Amino acid sequence: MSLELTNIIRVSITGAESGLAAVNTSALAIITDEVPVPADFGTSRVYLDAASVADDFGSNSETYRLAVMVFNQKLNVITGKGFLIIIPRDQTAAVQPATILGAANVNLAALTAIDYNINAAVDGGDAGDLLIGPIDTTDLASVLVSLNSTAVASAGLIFSASGELASARITLKTIATGVGTDITLAAAGTGTDISGLLELSGSATGAATGVERVKDCILRTAGSVPYFGIILNEKQTDANQTEISALVQSLTKFMVIGSNLSADIAGIFTTLKDAGYTHTRCLFYSIAENDALDMAAGEASRLMSINFNASNTALTMHLKDITGLVADTGVTQAILDAAKIAGVDVYADFGIAKLFTSGANLFIDQIYTQLALQVDLQVAGFNFLAQTTTKIPQTEIGMDGLKGSYRAVLARYVNAGVYAPGTWTGSTFGDPADFARNIKEFGFYIYSQAVAAQAAIERTARIAPAVRIAAKESGAIHSSDVIVLVEP
Fold first, then answer.
1. Which among 180, 170, 167 is positioned nearest to 118, based on CA atoms?
2. Rounded to whole angstroms, how far apart are CA atoms 313 and 302?
3. Strand, helix or coil at 35?
4. 170 near 110, Cβ under 8 Å?
5. Radius of gyration of the chain (CA)
6. What is the largest CA-CA distance in the chain?
7. How far apart are CA 382 and CA 236, in angstroms?
8. Are β-strands 99-101 and 167-174 bridged in parallel, bridged antiparallel, or unpaired?
9. For 369-412, how does the pLDDT look when each residue is reduced to its tens digit (9 = 90+)?
């Protein structure tokens, strides 16, 4: 009998490791309080045309009207290889606690003081410091035991957390729920205030059984439904909008809202700007509330037409057309001046109808492209680590590969016209000469500290040296001054 060839040659065949799909940054969601016609609609549905929305919501619905605005734009979410998602709010939502979500992840291991307090007013009661004391930072569970002290529990509050000890997102909720249930945080007057250290601030209100709040709808669907932009079919109260915007600011998403009330420019819109809620774009259109909501749908769809894998597709919304809207003749010079200060977009009459956008709270294209870059870098870095069949060595060779995955993303954004070679005028990092040369030649610079120089604790935990990236925006020309010298 012949002997097996494996005595000499051994062959194994493996497939490629799986990775994350790219995030679709042209996926726009309509969150609606209208009830869909099909009983089996589910959590959400994806649409590529407005006619299908009419089938599911009726041709006289607000949801269909907004869908028409989305798809009527000359360049829209479909151009960006995206789609429209419609998410109906739960009509019989359970009672919801008042919830304050941390604005960013925090390192809980850094909570080393022994006299932590949090100042909270609950259910309209008097504000007071609640003693927490020292924090057991052994692990995430022990931190939560410490945070949920006797005083905190007695006040009707409970802390929860997601993530890991060194990078956790904290949530504070009321235990009792229903109408009138609320939390308001302030700086503690005794001991060490912990609210700011946990990235918790502001106030929140609960909800009774009934139609789900927009905030709760986003919390319910943000991790399971693949949307990137948000528009609404109804205007929210100032308090609700503030809570919604605070939540959206903590996510890699943005929303566009509209109002026909000029008082909102110096009112809620300025409040959102001053709070730093750049992920919420505010629009003013004086004719009617529905028209203002339509403007939000049209502007969001037009913006999300960018295909980041194509050449020169980046855009600014300034002086663009919104198909389906006429010029808002209610925009006077005084209103335009107020809108500039508040960072509010208007669709004004300049002889022809054109969108006017100011950068008081950054330009909408800046916010959109920065969020898109963030998720693309996350996916690229994850896939580089996840799609190897062996391991990425914690060496300069390994770091070169990791930075190469980020470099490929930045190169796509330069090709699309989001970033461009130029001259850097701000502070720098890494080697100054390399920094300047890379920005001038490529439009971006990627740097990491040498592996040999990183802290032993990070090396033992197999954490890569932090990667720092600088990118030069291509900018946009929005206005021009002309000086003419005439000689007789």
1. 170
2. 12
3. coil
4. no
5. 26
6. 109
7. 37
8. antiparallel
9. 999 999 999 999 999 999 988 999 999 999 999 999 999 999 99
Sequential DSSP letters for 340-378: HHHT-EEEEESSSEEEE---BTB-HHHHHHHHHHHHHHH
Residue whose pair of structure tokens reads 């919420």 in the numeric block: 280
Rounded Cα gap, residues 359 and 366, in angstroms: 9
> What is the identity of the amino acid at 32?
T
Write the pLDDT tens digit of every residue in 22-44: 899 999 999 999 999 999 999 99
336 touches 439 (CB < 8 A):
no
Distance CA 77, CA 281 (A): 17
- The tokens for 106 are 């925090």
Q: Tell me the pLDDT of the chain averaged across its residues.
A: 94
Sign of the alpha-carbon dihedral angle for 248, 250, 253, 258: positive
> Which amino acid is residue 124, in one-letter code?
G
CB atoms within 10 A of CB 264: 23
Q: Mean of the pLDDT values across residues 52-80?
A: 97
- Quick one: tokens of 78? 């479909």
What's the pLDDT score for residue 171? 94
- Residue spans of beta strands (DSSP E) within 277-409: 280-284, 345-349, 353-356
Residue 180: predicted pLDDT: 60
Is 341:326 a contact under the CB 8 Å cutoff?
Answer: no
Residue with tokens 């939502």: 93
Domain coordinates of the chain in residue numbers?
27-90+214-365, 99-205, 389-488
Q: What are the pLDDT digits (tens) for 64-75?
A: 999 999 999 999
Q: Are strands 254-259 and 229-232 parallel, antiparallel or unpaired?
A: parallel
Burial 429-451 (b: 16+ CB within 10 A, else e): eeeeeebeebbeebbbbbbbbeb
Per-residue DSSP letter, 34: S
Residues 6+ apart with CB under 8 A from 144: 159, 160, 161
Write out pLDDT tens, residues 326-358. 999 999 999 999 999 999 999 999 999 999 998
Residue 7 has pLDDT above 90, yes or no: no
Q: Mean per-residue pLDDT for 138-165?
A: 94
**DSSP output for 121-188:** EETT---EEEEEE----SSHHHHHHHHS-HHHHHTTEEEEEEEETTEEEEEEEESS-STT-EEEEE--
First to last CA, the chain: 109
Q: Which of 12-26, 30-44, 71-85, 266-280 has the lowest mean pLDDT?
A: 12-26
User: Of 170, 234, 299, which Cα lies nearest the Cα of 32?
Assistant: 234
Q: Is 458 exposed, middle or buried (0-12, 13-18, 19+ CB in 10 A)?
A: middle
